[in-house]
Specification:
mainly alpha, 75 residues, elongated
Amino acid sequence: MLASTSMATTRTTFTLDDTLAEQARRLGVNVSAAARDGVAAAVRAALARADREAYLRTPETVDPFWDEARAWGDQ
């Protein structure tokens, strides 16, 4: 998880549909916590996408060193 107990925070503003905001109030949803969780999930997904795209641009190649290292270790 991205959050930690000693993290600095930044205050921000976002727009929320009136109906959704009312439902959140009625149901006792902590909108700030839900927004933090949603942004953290979106950041994790974006990092995974970026990592995958970077791998696709420059895929790993076989390194013959490891064949020799395994052979040496098996002796």
